[in-house]
Amino acid sequence: MGIINENFMLKNKTAKQLYYDYAENLPIIDYHCHLVPEMIANDHKFKDTYELFLGGDHYKWRQMRSNGIPEELITGNGDEFEKWTCFARTMPLLIGNPLYHWTALELKRYFDIDEPLTEKSAKTIWDKCNELLKRDDFSGKSLISKSNVEIICTTDDPADSLEHHIRLKNDGFSTKVLPTFRPDKAVEINKPTFMPYIEQIGVKTYAEFIKWLSEKIAFFHANGCRLSDHALEYVPFAAGDASAVFEKKINGGELTGEEINVFKTAVLKHCATEYTRLGWTMQLHIGALRNNNTNMFNKLGPDTGFDSINDLCIAEKLAEFMNYLELDDVLPKTILYTLNPKDNYVLGTMLGNFQKAPTAGKIQFGSGWWFNDNRDGMVAQMTALANLGILGRFVGMLTDSRSFVSYPRHEYFRRILCNLLGEWVEAGEYPDDRESLKKIVEGICYNNAKEYFNF
Q1: Per-residue pLDDT for 1 more than 70?
Q2: What letter does residue 255 receive in the DSSP assignment?
Q3: Which of 40, 276, 352, 388 is most buried, judged by most C-beta within 10 A?
Q4: Residues 77-99, buried b or exposed e (16+ Cβ, 10 A)?
Q5: Which domains occur in the chain, in start order?
Q6: H helices, E strands: number in the chain
């Protein structure tokens, strides 16, 4: 018998009542994910269980490597059932790892499978899932609809045509699929990708570059975009002549660290000014140390499971950057995420420096992200926010996932949230006031995001 029962993660009476009365059936707003818009628009049919559960999922690949599985049977050309079996062999060892819970939830919610995934059960589960995947109601759109997803925000480069978002809107798909503006390639002037990107978009001067960004932001806005996202090792801050830095770069010059930060600061400020004008939310994902294994990066590329947590000091420059925007009244609604839990209290206190009416919770502390996307990480993030700010204004969970069956992560989060609130109520730290608790639970799980993002 599996572990996914009605009381999963709900360890007290109040938690169960809060979850089943207020959280369980709310729609999902997945305001940050990495689903491929083309796959949604094409109503993708999955070839087999490997593609659905393991295709593109570097969380799972990482643990398979840790279990000594050869790359040929993870991302290579090995037989896909063998790959699935290798994952199944890894699963029983993942006690305490959220992958164990996520996989159990995915099997239960989509395939009604209670049996734990092991090497012994791998074939039975493989066969059952494969048989169901042949059905029309297990296509990409169907899996999204089954998950009660109201809104999906994908992650999209400014140069994207958004053709698949436009198709989805015209097709009348019941779930809104909206783009998110992710201009990392345009910001990271120090990366090898910058010059090929500039050549691709065809700009010759800094003024043309800035004009291009503004036009792309307007184009995204016209197609439903209401969020941007920036992946930053650290938040830069330096004043200076960004045009001169751009010119030096395109003429083959070697940039100093200060010049790099001058350019990044100027581009981010320009974007933030546009976001503020349009009422967008800016997301800053801070603190990933990416592509650490050069051999594997050269073989597989980015986002394949070779990233980790950075340990830079982020507070001072983050404060300077946010203040720089606020001085000109161009600080947009902003969500701050940290990959390093040491910075939970840094971000939890940074929020209060820049809150501003009329938007309640204008500056948000983002949910436990990536390596913090687990019970301990979620509890730590919410506890820090509760200690330092207003948990009741939190915009809640997102999947940050490439998987069409990742939506039970919202259930996972909601159960953990209700359990945490239940603990506080039953410890006598908050009254058993169902009207107030209902507002908090429904707010964090759905209503706050709906209002905050102006969807």
Answers
A1: no
A2: P
A3: 40
A4: eeebbebbbbbbbbbeebeeebb
A5: 13-44+136-452 (3.20.20.140), 45-135 (1.10.2020.10)
A6: 21, 9
